[in-house]
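[step 3/7] fold_predict: job queued, chain A
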Amino acid sequence: MKQKAHAEMGLSLIELLIAVTIAGILIAGMQGLVEIALNAESSTRARNDSLQQGRFAMQLMIKSVRMTRRLMIPLGENPNTAYSESERDVLAVTLDPTLDRDKDGWADANNDKDFLDVNNNGTRDAGEPERIDEDTQGDMTNDNKSGIILIDDDGDGYIDESAVADDDEDSLFNEDKLDNIDNDNDGSIDEDMGHSMRESGAPGILGFDDDFDGSVDEGDGKDDDEDGPQGDDWLDPVVYFLNGTTLMQRVPNINPADGTDYQENPVAENVSIFEVKRIPQGAGRTVLVDITLEITPIDGEPSIFNTRVGVGSGL
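[step 4/7] structure written:
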């Protein structure tokens, strides 16, 4: 009977202290495991977010390069400068000539909404193509700044530092004409045209009826498409650039009033590297662009993306 009474007394103080100590050790160990699991989950989430942002940004840039007629930045390598024009942290191309965001039947890049009226009936019929970027001004982007507004076009560290008509920011202006030749020997072709794009002294192509109206070389020499108005179809840049560690995309608004009528949107955060390299190709072959993007989240591992894409290869 005495043994039974002793058993019903429960744990002694020493036993209770031992149990509490063991429980504390177990709880502390579990807490460490929980923290490790939470940190791993956070790291995985950050990694997945970086991958998603990087893939999205690369898809945008690849499509922009494939669906353009002109690579604006990087420029070609100029042998007369001590800095690099062809390796940049900026990518700029002209707007996709097939893009019609408002579905009105006209390409967004067709600022003057004109076309080749082959049968001269004043109506755009099936098979008559639009005319895009065919009648620029001395200020090719129509933004009243040298080069692309608020962008360092040539990579010399200065922005909009030259004359309005200096589209490549090399301190000269309108020194290159539309002929697929590097007239100014700066490594780029047709990158700084004048109000008369061909400098032929005649509107449009010399000796050719550009607008199919039955007349040849009629009008002012600055009217490159012979439709009457001058400089009414400028270049519409799509630009990717860094704002701190955020990769931004600039696109023209629909039916822009001029080259300053655009919107900017973030496409990737925590960008640690953004490099764009122009790869020249001889004998009229497609210009290639190398794009490298690295995203490094806070306390996370970097995600690196790299691709090479041909300019206009999707058109």
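[step 5/7] annotate
The mean pLDDT is 90.
The helical segments are 2-7, 13-66.
exit 0
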